[in-house]
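Good morning N.,

You mentioned wanting to compare the apo and holo forms, so I went ahead and generated the holo version with heme C. This is what I fed in:
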Amino acid sequence: MKGIKRILVTLAAIAIVIIILSRCMNAADALPKDIRGEAYAGAATCVKCHQEIKQSFAHNAHGLTSKPVYDQELLKIFAPDSNVFNFDAHQKVVIEKRAGGIFQVAYVDGKEVRAEKFDMVFGSGEKAYTYAYWKGKKLYELPLSYFSAIRNWAISPGFTNQTFYYDRPIGSRCLECHASYVDKKVTQTSGITTDEEMERGALLYGIDCERCHGPGRQHAVFHLENPKEKTAKFITIYKTLSRKQKMDACGVCHSGNTLVAQKSVFGFTPGDNLDDYYAQDFVGFGGGNPDVHGNQTNMLMGSNCYRKSENMTCQSCHNTHENIKGNLKIYSERCISCHQSIKHSEVTLAKGSLSTNCIDCHMPKEPSKLITFQQAGKDHSSPYLLRSHHIAIYPDIKK
Ligand code: HEC
Ligand code: HEC
Ligand code: HEC
Ligand code: HEC
Ligand code: HEC
Ligand code: HEC
Ligand code: HEC
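and this is what came out, ligand included:
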């Protein structure tokens, strides 16, 4: 009897183990694969449980910052009367819808000399859209970009206004800040020159959940199996990070383009030390003279709000999941949370409604030194304006 009982108990134990194991396998197996590897789950899995974030994130600039070009969307922004860019009396680029898609077509004296298709778009359109086309495993920038401020086409930033240019390669560096992943192969051609090839089919567009939260497959599997567990497991908790770690998590893409990447930042996860990825340029550090473009980190770190407070981070004003673009009143409330009593002079106070817009005076829009854009028929280039994150008392607003 005893023997049979023991066998039964053993069998039951084995059965339980098998059931548990198979449940694990099922939960893990049921998840779709992610091109970044075993540790990742993909945004579609994350939003199954995080529905509220799915809603807000659908309209967030991060998620929308790169994608393939969908003709219907592109057609919305180019009107038939604003689809020509004249470089001079002889040369022009025309946006044309043809059978195979939409193209930027270059003409010299009325004769077509080059046509490349809109394949991919950079930018959520807040300020601009820049477009690219694929040639084999390489990506190139199209000559015209769309600028929201003028609601029209202009020459892509940094391009000459003398003639159209189709051969500026877009490397994986752009994608490191504007996408979630791309599979690439770097080969050494001669000496120190290298050649980079990117896999169009292995590109994750937009900045997704795991780009900011780190790989989350283990987290997803754990919570699928333990639906009653309300405490997050196997995912970095932002609140527990140090100030530097929090700044680095945003700084990975918001510290400017002048930093030299030592290794791909696709692998950066919150909690990592950014110095391990970039060789810092100390010239621009701490407010030396950083450009407003894409360099909010160093601009902010140079201002007294940051230096004299102990806990200011990007999150003091930004919750990356919400979309409050343009709502300067809400932003101002975040200033007031630290500045309950302010000593403004009579002159300043006389300007009225101070409390609802601290931003325009203390974080004025400034032109980027690196980016300007050239409109058709204009001999000067137009500035590309960004909020200065160097919060300060600006002399010209004192008057
Ligand atoms: C099976 C459900 C489930 C899936 C799938 C899931 N999560 Fe979660 N997640 C939870 C639960 C439960 C919590 C804890 C309660 C809460 O904070 O909402 C949590 C919490 C979190 C937190 C908060 C941590 C903190 O600061 O407290 C983050 C960040 C997070 N998840 C990210 C992700 C990401 C990224 C993915 C996709 C890779 C993902 N989750 C997939 C269930 C899930
Ligand atoms: C993987 C790169 C990357 C990371 C990491 C990142 N950002 Fe961004 N962020 C971008 C890019 C690119 C844009 C421009 C998006 C566009 O409009 O196309 C952007 C835009 C923004 C904007 C302006 C759009 C808006 O929603 O108002 C804010 C604010 C912002 N980021 C804050 C943050 C903060 C705070 C963090 C850290 C928690 C962060 N970002 C992390 C790349 C990144
Ligand atoms: C641009 C970076 C960024 C992206 C992209 C991003 N998050 Fe977050 N997320 C954050 C930061 C930063 C926090 C911490 C906010 C805080 O503590 O103030 C956070 C907090 C959270 C939390 C904790 C609860 C909350 O709302 O504060 C959850 C859950 C979460 N994220 C899930 C997701 C999911 C799911 C996605 C994809 C749909 C996603 N995140 C995309 C930066 C990001
Ligand atoms: C170091 C990170 C980084 C790199 C590299 C980078 N960008 Fe950006 N980019 C940003 C950030 C951050 C913004 C948000 C606005 C700002 O701060 O200028 C932005 C803004 C933009 C915008 C305007 C988006 C909008 O919705 O208004 C476009 C278009 C753009 N970048 C294209 C590119 C292209 C093309 C490349 C490569 C040639 C590139 N970027 C390289 C970080 C980067
Ligand atoms: C996390 C808290 C915090 C937040 C949020 C904050 N500040 Fe400050 N700010 C400070 C501290 C601390 C100082 C330094 C005060 C001192 O020198 O006594 C400061 C200084 C200033 C100064 C004086 C600058 C100078 O160079 O002398 C101005 C102006 C200012 N803040 C405006 C703002 C505005 C506008 C906002 C919102 C966009 C804001 N602050 C958000 C903490 C904060
Ligand atoms: C003291 C408040 C405050 C802090 C801290 C702060 N920002 Fe901002 N940020 C703003 C305001 C205000 C705007 C303008 C919003 C608008 O016009 O809708 C802005 C705009 C932006 C934009 C859009 C670019 C533009 O010029 O319109 C980006 C990108 C951004 N912030 C990133 C960051 C990052 C990254 C950090 C941390 C290094 C950070 N911010 C810290 C207040 C802040
Ligand atoms: C019309 C432009 C303007 C607006 C709007 C404005 N400020 Fe100021 N602020 C100034 C000027 C100019 C000074 C220098 C002192 C003076 O001349 O009033 C100053 C000084 C300050 C100082 C440093 C003086 C002190 O108290 O330590 C802080 C902090 C500050 N402002 C915060 C804010 C905040 C927060 C808001 C929004 C609630 C705001 N300001 C709105 C123009 C402005």
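The chain has a mean pLDDT of 87.

Happy to go through it together on a call whenever suits you.

Best,
F.
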